[in-house]
Amino acid sequence: MVHAIGIDVGGTLTKVAFFDDNQKLTFLYFLSDDLQRVSDWIALFDDDVKIGLTGGRAEQLKTFLRCHDNLHYLVEFDATVAGVNYQLQKDGKNFPDAVITNIGTGTSIHYHRGDEHKRISGTGIGGGTLLGMSALMTGIHQFDEIVQLSARGSRSEVDMLVSDIYFGNKTPIDGGLTASNFGAAGLTPLMERSKEDILATVQGLVGEVISTLSIQCAFAEDVEHIVYIGSTLSGNIPLQNIIGNYTKRKNRTPIFLRDNGYSGAIGALLSIRKEN
């Protein structure tokens, strides 16, 4: 019997975490533009099930759950950090502090040490950017399709590298770094580029902006590890590779969690179990 449910209501996805009858941590998600489905799913459980809510649209979900008496709200950043701590411990990863980069619809970056955390930066570049730019430039709206096609694409003739600018001359910085995302696309008509190449380049722009900002924060806080989380990374190996490789290139250690989209939901769930 399920006694508690953690729900993270994000701008795009609503993530759910709970322990099943065998005490196995279980996950599922819904689209946040159909919160009635979330409400209908919750109605399948006993009335005394406790629900931990977090996320930017948690108040909106509450309007669908007016008859439910066991709602408990947790601040989103607190829930996320609690979930990350739990996941790191489960994965056997122990270090004193870290930068946590949460890639949702947009991206929020935190400094985390022990049970304390503070938001230190963020950007509007995130999963919403990936979906929006992909749709505008290729007409493709589905996240899974974007990921699959981008994995087959190449950025080599769409992005401009530092080495491209210096034309074989010695470069003052790493020549393999991107000098301009989409910078080479203006040299020839964009219509000549395949959808695969365009999507790969969108992934590159999103990944490099997020990792660059995260790395800057890690240097500022004198931190080695950067924990990248968020639904945008789920099953998105191309984006993980872009972020991971760039982070390593800048001498910082990237960490990707197995269930990287569910940290907030896990934290909300743990808050209910702790109260019990």
From TrEMBL:
Catalytic EC class: transferase
Biological-process GO terms, alphabetical: coenzyme A biosynthetic process
Pfam families: Fumble
Keyword Zinc: no
Signal sequence coordinates: none
InterPro entries hit by this protein: ATPase_NBD, Type_II_PanK, Type_II_PanK_bac
Enzyme Commission number: 2.7.1.33
Superkingdom of this protein's organism: Bacteria
GO CC aspect terms: cytosol
Keywords: ATP-binding, Coenzyme A biosynthesis, Cytoplasm, Kinase, Nucleotide-binding, Transferase
One annotated GO molecular function: ATP binding
PANTHER family: 4'-PHOSPHOPANTETHEINE PHOSPHATASE, PANTOTHENATE KINASE
Protein name: Type II pantothenate kinase
Origin species: Paenisporosarcina antarctica
